[in-house]
């Protein structure tokens, strides 16, 4: 790791101010940034730690509306009793991110802002039609995730939380990379008041995406067999050592069925 | 058996410090004035070094020295060597390409060390390493051994034309070909043994300290055999004469073979310490471990196994290409030859065997011994072939094996080895019973109802441990002897120190070796200390690898104990005014048999040192040394049965049952033996399902250079193992021990792959059988 100036922000406004110093980067759980810095692949001049800002942490469920602060850890999402009632698919998803150490440090805001193409949360946000809240505006998830490790965030903009309306039904199934245990195909299927949304992470060559074909099939009947015969095109999929595009296309179809089956309990 | 003697499940003495963070590893060592090293390594798989400019780096904060291969050569430091000479079948010696500890004019794999930077802190050393400017001219690289043998392939070493190191054979080609010609059935296969990265928990490390006043070097290093390290560094690398070089291997966090070898870094740290005048410490980061620890396996093999009409094996022909990487590591040549082809008879009576082995340079990390070293490769070849033959012949895999088992001992195979003892049917029976083999069809049907493909596979392995005797291995090309030493020091109050040439890096010697002494003299193990890993303390020894520390290391202790016991009895007889032959040792006392006359052990010990009243002419003191050279290898064997369920939609394999029935001969501590088997199977399952070092063919970059891409086995990849042992004592050593450290890694991969191929109905499957690989094999079947 190169030497770096560490700042602990006391508030979001403070963080925004500190973010202007040098080539500063926000630090939340640090689950991606710190390893990248340790291997010298990332070299920010300053770190602005927002993980201790109390206002950024916590889950609130008010009626059907769920709001999760950006600095809420995966563990706190996974174990929130109200959220487990409102949207058990999301607590299930959070409980399978990384390992216990990661879940106690990593945060939902960090995951979303990083938009790793194999991360779990982007699929949930997209399928839940969530709103990403920043210190400057609100952005729909469909406009937020713009590519591999790319988001609609502008310089100095800080994710402060997410909110969404609890779906009638939702399920998440992922097939993990055997080594990293990130998703090589993760599918979040949700049936909400505005219809069915199916979002896929870990597989698409441009990052998280929705499968309109699956959504159409599930809109008719929200059951796994409705997806029979749907084959995804391998040409839209990533390929690497662990999973060829063809294998990923297969896994997305398999995981979609398992997600729907999970949603139907 | 006493409470803490042979056969007792004694908790490991060393675990308290390991578990509570009290272990002392190389990185824990601090010497006054110590500085830190970073290496500049080649980013290319193959390139000429055109220019090295260190000026900028030398001016960086905290930098003490920036040293290159030219300076190393100028100081007379030698090239690395391979310590086992193999001759090709045309009689020519193996072609050893020059391996300079720091590359001078060419780099041959990604990670090849080029420059060392010494600075006040590790961070400063790294900063300065980044500032070293090296101009490379890239060459074409080749990473696959078969590709490297083709004409027109990039050439690595001028010494090795066509990248061929040697073309070696063993056995009777004519008889084997004839058996194949006359066979009722021939099973033919192409078999790949995947390349592995050892990944010991503790990365390699070295601390070199040159004391100018004493003109003496000390090297703390992560070694499985510190004396061999000292010998090689003195005799071949010209670091210092042996009397001026102390090598200490303190607590070492796992070796698995990868810490047998002498690597460039420890040599360079010693040399750099003298050059810069400060102690120099280097600790590999995990990326360096992936790139530069000697890898394991990487064989491509074709086989033909001939059967007569009664399904008896009549001949076995094997052709192997072994990838040895960019340079020949210390014992690399022995692994695909005498540690591999000599085991191709497996547990079977095979009248004719022939193996041809070609070893090849490629632009990859050097390949050398890794847990099992040659024997896993042999077992995989034999046991995949046996299972496949059984399927082709339409006979049960167990019956085909049983029909061909060796049942008379000693048994001379056609490939050097003379098996001394074994009962292969006993292991097979025990494993089949534990696995409820008969109930498999029912379990398969139940799995099918869940949509899962269930399969069962077995592996009847044999291996050879305690490689010996020295004269025999010498005649086969070994540059060292393979005996072991021990010194037993009885202190004046009767407590005991055992100085052993073996080295413990996870094996639990501090416990098992103490149990051996406890058994002999009836002393609690707390009064017995095991000293190892320091050339200043311990007499010359050969270290720990090849599951040799029980059969060879403990046998040396037995010989030293014999001498101590004889002298102790003489002293006791004198003190008790009894006949020496009437003295027995029980519960910490020397007694006159059949009487209540006795002298406590500690009094006898004290008497030996006060020397007030010793038998006439006896020297004072009680300390004995022994060197033990075995008469033969030992031959652990066993049967492993694996049962899997495969999800056909994803290709994911779950091991639902794993049974191991091993014959290790006599056992000192069953708990430690079970731990060794568990760990070995975990590594074998890792090889079969998860692990594979993968180089990009075009660039020669290691694609699996971190745990994000290289899959190590985790707890949830493994079932709860069912292990048991049977015992045919080894007749070749005083304890009847065979060795258990590698068996799990040797026996398990074919059992796993035989099970998966049984489940999916497609025999074409390569390791690691990742979900993607298995899914593709299922698709290919349709």
TrEMBL record, chain A:
Keyword Metal-binding: no
Keyword rRNA-binding listed: no
GO MF, one annotated term: FAD binding
Pfam families documented for this protein: FAD_binding_5
Domain FAD-binding PCMH-type: 1-169
TM ranges: none
Alphabetical UniProt keywords: FAD, Flavoprotein, Oxidoreductase
PANTHER family, sorted: XANTHINE DEHYDROGENASE SUBUNIT C-RELATED
Name of the protein in its database record: Carbon-monoxide dehydrogenase medium subunit
Naturally occurring in which organism (per UniProt): Neomesorhizobium albiziae
Automatic annotation (TrEMBL), chain B:
Domain Aldehyde oxidase/xanthine dehydrogenase a/b hammerhead: 20-140
Keywords: Molybdenum, Oxidoreductase
Protein name: Xanthine dehydrogenase, molybdenum binding subunit apoprotein
UniProt GO molecular function: iron ion binding; oxidoreductase activity
Pfam family, one: Ald_Xan_dh_C
InterPro entries: Ald_Oxase/Xan_DH_a/b (IPR000674), Ald_Oxase/Xan_DH_a/b_sf (IPR036856), Ald_Oxase/xanthine_DH-like (IPR016208), AldOxase/xan_DH_MoCoBD1 (IPR008274), AldOxase/xan_DH_MoCoBD2 (IPR046867), AldOxase/xan_DH_Mopterin-bd_sf (IPR037165)
SMART domains in UniProt: Ald_Xan_dh_C (SM01008)
């Amino acid at each position: 790791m190169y030497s770096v100036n560490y700042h602990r922000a006391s508030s979001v406004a403070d963080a925004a101010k500190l973010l202007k110093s040098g080539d500063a980067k926000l630090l939340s759980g640090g689950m991606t940034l710190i390893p990248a810095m340790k291997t010298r692949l990332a070299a920010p001049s300053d770190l602005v730690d927002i993980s201790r800002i109390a206002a950024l942490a916590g889950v609130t469920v008010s009626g059907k509306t769920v709001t999760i602060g950006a600095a809420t850890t995966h563990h706190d999402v996974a174990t929130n009793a109200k959220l487990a009632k409102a949207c058990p698919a999301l607590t299930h998803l959070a409980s399978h991110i990384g390992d216990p150490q990661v879940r106690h440090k990593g945060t939902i805001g960090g995951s979303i802002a990083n938009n790793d193409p194999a991360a779990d949360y982007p699929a949930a946000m997209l399928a839940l039609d969530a709103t990403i809240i920043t210190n400057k505006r609100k952005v729909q998830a469909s406009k937020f995730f713009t590519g591999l490790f790319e988001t609609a965030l502008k310089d100095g903009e800080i994710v402060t939380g997410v909110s969404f309306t609890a779906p009638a039904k939702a399920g998440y199934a992922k097939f993990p990379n055997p080594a990293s245990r990130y998703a090589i195909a993760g599918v979040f299927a949700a049936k909400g008041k505005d219809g069915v949304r199916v979002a896929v992470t870990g597989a698409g060559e441009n990052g998280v995406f929705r499968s309109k074909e699956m959504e159409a099939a599930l809109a008719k009947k929200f059951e796994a067999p409705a997806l029979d015969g749907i084959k995804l095109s391998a040409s839209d999929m990533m390929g690497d050592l662990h999973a060829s595009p063809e294998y990923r296309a297969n896994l997305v179809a398999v995981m979609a069925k398992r997600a729907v089956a999970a949603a139907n309990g | 058996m006493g409470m803490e003697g042979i056969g007792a499940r004694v908790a490991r003495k060393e675990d308290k410090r390991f578990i509570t963070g009290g272990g002392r590893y190389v990185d824990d060592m601090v010497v006054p004035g110590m500085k830190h090293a970073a290496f500049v390594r080649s980013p290319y798989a193959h390139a000429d070094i055109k220019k090295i400019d260190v000026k900028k780096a030398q001016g960086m904060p905290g930098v003490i020295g920036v040293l290159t291969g030219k300076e190393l050569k100028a100081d007379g430091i030698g090239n690395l060597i391979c310590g086992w000479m193999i001759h090709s079948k045309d009689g020519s010696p193996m072609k050893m390409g020059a391996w300079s500890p720091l590359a001078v004019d060419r780099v041959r794999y990604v990670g090849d060390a080029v420059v060392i930077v010494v600075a006040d802190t590790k961070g400063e050393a790294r900063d300065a390493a980044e500032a070293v400017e090296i101009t490379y001219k890239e060459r074409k690289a080749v990473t696959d051994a078969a590709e490297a043998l083709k004409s027109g392939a990039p050439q690595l070493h001028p010494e090795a034309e066509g990248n061929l190191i040697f073309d070696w054979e063993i056995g009777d080609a004519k008889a084997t070909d004839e058996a194949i010609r006359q066979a009722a059935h021939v099973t033919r296969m192409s078999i790949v043994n995947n390349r592995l990265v050892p990944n010991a928990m503790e990365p390699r490390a070295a601390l070199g300290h040159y004391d100018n006043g004493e003109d003496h070097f000390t090297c703390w290093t992560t070694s499985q055999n510190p004396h061999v390290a000292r010998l090689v560094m003195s005799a071949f690398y010209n670091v210092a004469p042996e009397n001026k070089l102390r090598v200490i291997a303190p607590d070492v966090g796992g070796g698995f073979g990868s810490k047998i070898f002498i690597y460039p870094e420890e040599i360079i740290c010693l040399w750099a310490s003298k050059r810069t005048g400060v102690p120099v410490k280097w600790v590999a980061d995990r990326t360096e471990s992936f790139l530069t620890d000697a890898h394991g396996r990487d064989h491509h093999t074709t086989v033909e196994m001939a059967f007569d009409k009664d399904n008896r094996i009549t001949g076995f022909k094997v052709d192997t290409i072994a990838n040895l990487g960019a340079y020949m590591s210390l014992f690399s040549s022995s692994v695909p030859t005498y540690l591999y082809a000599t085991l191709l008879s497996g547990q079977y009576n095979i009248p004719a065997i022939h193996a041809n082995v070609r070893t090849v340079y490629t632009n990859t990390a050097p390949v050398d011994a890794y847990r099992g070293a040659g024997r896993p490769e042999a077992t995989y070849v034999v046991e995949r072939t046996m299972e496949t033959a059984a399927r082709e012949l339409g006979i049960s895999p167990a019956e085909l094996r049983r029909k061909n088992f060796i049942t008379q001992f000693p048994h001379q195979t056609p490939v050097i080895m003379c098996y001394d003892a074994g009962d292969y049917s006993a292991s097979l029976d025990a494993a089949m019973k534990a696995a409820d083999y008969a109930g498999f069809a029912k379990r398969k049907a139940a799995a099918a109802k869940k949509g899962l493909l269930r399969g069962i596979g077995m592996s009847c392995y044999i291996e050879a441990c305690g490689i010996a005797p020295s004269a025999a291995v010498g005649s086969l090309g070994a540059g060292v002897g393979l005996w072991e030493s021990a010194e037993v020091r009885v202190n004046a109050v009767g407590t005991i120190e055992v100085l052993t040439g073996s080295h413990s890096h996870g094996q639990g010697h501090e416990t098992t070796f103490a149990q051996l002494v406890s058994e002999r003299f009836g002393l609690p193990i707390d009064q017995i200390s095991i000293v190892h890993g320091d050339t200043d303390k311990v007499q010359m020894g050969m270290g720990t690898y090849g599951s040799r520390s029980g059969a060879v290391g403990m046998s040396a202790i037995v010989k030293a104990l014999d001498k101590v016991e004889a002298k102790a009895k003489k002293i006791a007889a004198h003190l008790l005014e009894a006949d020496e032959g009437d003295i027995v040792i029980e519960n910490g006392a020397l007694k006159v048999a059949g009487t209540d006359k006795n002298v406590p052990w500690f009094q006898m010990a004290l008497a030996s040192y006060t020397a007030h009243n010793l038998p006439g002419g006896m020297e004072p003191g009680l300390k004995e040394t022994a060197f033990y050279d075995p008469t033969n290898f030992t031959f652990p064997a066993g049967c492993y049965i694996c049962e899997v369920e495969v999800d056909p939609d994803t290709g994911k394999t779950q091991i639902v049952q794993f049974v191991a029935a091993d014959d290790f001969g006599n056992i000192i501590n069953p708990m430690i033996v079970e731990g060794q088997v568990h760990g070995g199977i975990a590594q074998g399952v890792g090889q079969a399902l998860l692990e594979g070092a993968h180089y990009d063919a075009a660039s020669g970059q290691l694609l699996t250079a971190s745990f994000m891409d290289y899959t190590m086995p985790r707890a949830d990849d493994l079932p709860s193992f069912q292990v048991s042992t049977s015992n045919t004592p080894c007749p070749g050593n005083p304890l009847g021990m065979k060795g258990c450290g590698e068996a799990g890694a040797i026996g398990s991969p074919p059992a796993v792959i035989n099970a998966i191929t049984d489940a999916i109905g497609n025999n074409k499957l390569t390791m690691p059988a990742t979900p993607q690989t298995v899914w593709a094999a299922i698709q290919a079947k349709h």
